[in-house]
Each structure stands twice: as structure tokens, then as C-alpha cells.
Design a protein that fits this description.
Its main location: secreted. By secondary structure, the chain is mainly beta. It has two helices and 29 strands. The chain has two domains: 182 residues, Pectate Lyase C-like, CATH 2.160.20.10; 172 residues, Single-stranded right-handed beta-helix, Pectin lyase-like (Pectate Lyase C-like, 3 Solenoid), CATH 2.160.20. Helix content is 8%, strand content 51%. It is elongated and about 65 Å long.
Length: 394
């Protein structure tokens, strides 16, 4: 080897060692080594894109990008796309990620942090994801030419996705959205936005197949968890929703006559504290498709409005000849207190809801002058062991 070639080789190795180190056979990348300042003011967007590119090129078994503790990284809206070399990619958020506020958003971007087509992604840590959403909450549309309020974190086509440990606050819109992905686990996360933060769903799932959400607490200004069209084989357990959040909802489905479906959903051992609703299915009149094989079981209700709700006239949409078909839905072992009279509302379209089961229900009103009641239309099924509310209309 010539002297000049040797010098060049040493320089290349030196540059690489500045940005990564190897521990137990895996590459570990430190975001600060890619030029990020982490001072909460400097735009670190390009630094994290560079770091993600290096992470994605790594060919070892489990390359890891560390967003270090003790720093706040200010990021403008960005998108990073795979595929990556490794089948297991790890992004470890130990510090904080900070979004721009509305007045400093710039352009039309409906997603803040968008990760696309990355298989085997683990996105975890003890850090905080701050969506800086305060300026968006009183708006019904986005900014500039943008018609939508932005989503904070958006994972698209990320099969094998695992998200855990993080705290998400102040989303401009949806805090965490997963789309077109399979075999997803979301666990031990904390979402906290105030009740007045309108349109801030905690978690949205769209066309997600085989997913588990568990051991998490969500406080937001809209749905705690929204299960959108095309989602199948979802289990939700040990999730606490509220106060202020709208509950765990299937839908809304079928807007503008669209065809959508959700099936094989189990929501079990979940708690709703001071929520606007608890377990809910909502569809637009005139929609097509179906909702089937749904179980809501062992649900604790604490001073929550609309504990059990099927709404086939969502947003007061008027009755139409067709509707999303709802069948094989079980509400069981649901106990606690509601703040309004309507403990059970089953408002089905004229085509009817079928195989609806209510069993072991005991929900009472906190207002003795207005005892809990049942309201329903066009519902077919069975009821057993209903302690409260009295009466039934199935």
C-alpha cells in the first residue's frame, strides 16, 4: 500500500469512528456526532436525517440511533424512507424531540415526523415527544394551503413496529398514527395533552393487521384510541383513558359513502376516568362495509359520559338506504359510573345491528335525580345479568 493510500484509509476510518461505535457486534450512532446541537433552538432536522441515513445503511443485526438524554432537538417536519439494510432498526429516544409551533411551521406539511417503509423498527426510550400543538387547537383546518391539522408521529408501512416507553405531549393533531403495517406492538407509552386540545387523538390505527396496545395511559382532547378502516386482529389491554379523552372508538367509518371495515378487535381490562365516552362504534349514514367480531370486556367506567355507544348516525348524518353493517359485538363486564343519563346508547341504522350481546353490565349515574338509562334503535341480540341501567330495548 502506498503512503498516500494509507493516509486516505486512516482518514476514512477516523471520520467513521466519530459518528459510530460498535458494541457487542452492533453499530450505535449518537445524534450529536452528526452535527445536532440539541439546544432546543437550532434546527437539527438535517442532522437527524443524516443519522437516520447512516443507521439505515448499517448492515449489522441491530443498529441503534441514540437521541441522547439532557438535550432537546428541534425538528421541522421531515420524512425518512427505507428500506434499510438491517431487518432490525432501533431508534432510542432518551432526550426530547421538539416540533415548531404553528406560527413557525412553514409550508404545507401534514405530518411532523414521518417514518416510511422500515421493517423491524423499534422506537423507544424514556424521552419526551413534544408536538408544540397549542397554536393548532382552536383551528379546524391547517395552515397556509394545508387543509388538515398535522399528525405528530406517523409510521407508514413499518411491519414489525415496536413503540414503547416514550411520553408524548401537546400534539398539534393526532399524537401517534400507524398506517399500512403488520405485527405492531405499542406499550408503556404516556400521552398527555389537555382536554381543550381539539382533534388530538392519542393513537390512530389505519389498515393495521395484528397489533397489540397495552399498559399505557392516554389523556387527550379527542379519541384515546381510534381504530380506522382496514384494521384487523387488534388487542387492546391495560390502557387508561382520560380525563377529557373521547374513549376507544371503532371509526368513524363510511364517510361520503366509502366502503370500510374493522374486524377481530378485543378491548379488555381498560379504564376510563372522566372521559367523554368509553367504548364506541361510530359510522356515517350511507357508508358501506362492515364491523364484526368485536369484544369489549372487563371495562371500568369512572364518571364517564356515554360508557357504551353504537352511533350509526355519526355527526347527526341523516338516515340513508345503506349503512355499514355491524354484527357480532359483545359488551361484557362493564362497571362503574356515568355523568349523564345515557349509560347505553345503541343507535343503529334501519338495516339493523345483529348479534349484539350485553352481559354483566352495572353502570349507574352519579346524579340520583337522573338515573342511568338505555336508548336503542334497530338492535338485535341478547342481554343477560344487567344490573344497571334498568330495562333493555334489544
Amino acid at each position: 500500500m502506498s503512503k498516500d493510500l494509507l493516509i486516505v484509509s486512516i482518514l476514512i476510518l477516523s471520520i467513521a469512528s466519530c459518528n459510530t461505535w460498535v458494541a457487542h457486534g452492533q453499530s450505535t450512532f449518537d445524534l450529536l456526532k452528526f452535527g445536532a446541537k440539541g439546544d432546543g433552538q437550532t434546527d437539527d432536522s438535517q442532522a437527524i436525517l443524516n443519522a437516520l441515513e447512516a443507521l439505515c445503511r448499517a448492515s449489522d443485526e441491530n443498529p441503534t440511533l441514540v437521541v441522547p438524554n439532557g438535550h432537546t432537538f428541534f425538528l421541522r417536519p421531515l420524512k425518512f424512507s427505507g428500506p434499510c439494510q438491517s431487518k432490525n432498526i432501533h431508534i432510542k429516544i432518551m432526550g426530547n424531540l421538539l416540533a415548531p409551533n404553528r406560527s413557525n411551521w412553514g409550508g404545507c406539511a401534514i405530518i411532523w415526523f414521518h417514518l416510511f417503509n422500515i421493517t423491524g423498527l423499534t422506537f423507544d426510550g424514556t424521552g419526551v415527544i413534544n408536538g408544540s400543538g397549542q397554536g393548532w387547537w382552536s383551528r379546524v383546518i391547517g395552515t397556509g394551503d394545508c387543509s388538515r391539522i398535522p399528525t405528530a408521529l406517523y409510521f407508514e408501512k413499518c411491519d414489525g413496529l415496536q413503540i414503547s416507553g416514550l411520553t408524548h405531549i401537546n400534539g398539534p393533531g393526532v399524537h401517534l398514527s400507524v398506517v399500512d403495517s403488520q405485527d405492531v406492538t405499542i406499550s408503556n407509552i404516556h400521552i398527555n395533552s389537555p382536554e381543550e386540545s381539539h382533534n388530538t387523538d392519542g393513537i390512530d390505527l389505519t389498515r393495521v393487521i395484528r397489533a397489540n396496545i397495552h399498559d399505557s395511559d392516554i389523556q387527550s382532547g379527542d379519541d384515546c384510541i381510534a381504530i380506522k378502516g382496514g384494521t384487523q386482529f387488534l388487542n387492546v389491554s391495560q390502557v387508561t383513558c382520560g380525563p377529557g379523552t373521547h374513549g376507544i372508538s371503532v371509526g368513524s367509518l363510511g364517510k361520503n359513502g366509502s366502503e370500510e371495515f374493522v374486524d377481530h378487535l378485543t378491548v379488555k381490562n381498560c379504564t376510563f376516568n372522566g372521559a367523554d365516552s368509553a367504548v364506541k362504534i361510530k359510522t356515517w349514514a350511507g357508508g358501506k362495509g362492515y364491523v364484526s367480531n368485536i369484544v369489549f370486556d372487563h371495562i371500568q367506567i369512572n364518571q364517564t359520559n356515554f360508557p357504551i355507544y353504537i352511533d350509526q348516525h355519526y355527526m347527526r348524518s341523516k338516515e340513508q338506504p345503506q349503512a355499514v353493517k355491524i354484527s357480532n359485538v359483545t359488551f361484557s363486564n362493564i362497571n362503574g359510573t356515568c355523568v349523564g343519563k345515557d349509560a347505553i346508547v345503541l343507535d343503529c341504522a334501519k338495516i339493523g345491528c345483529y348479534d349484539i350481546t350485553l352481559q354483566q353490565i352495572n353502570v349507574t349515574s352519579i346524579n340520583p335525580k337522573h338515573p342511568a338509562r338505555v336508548r336503542c334503535n334497530n338492535v338485535h341480540g341478547t342481554t343477560t345479568d344487567i344490573i344497571s341501567p334498568r330495562g333493555h330495548c334489544i
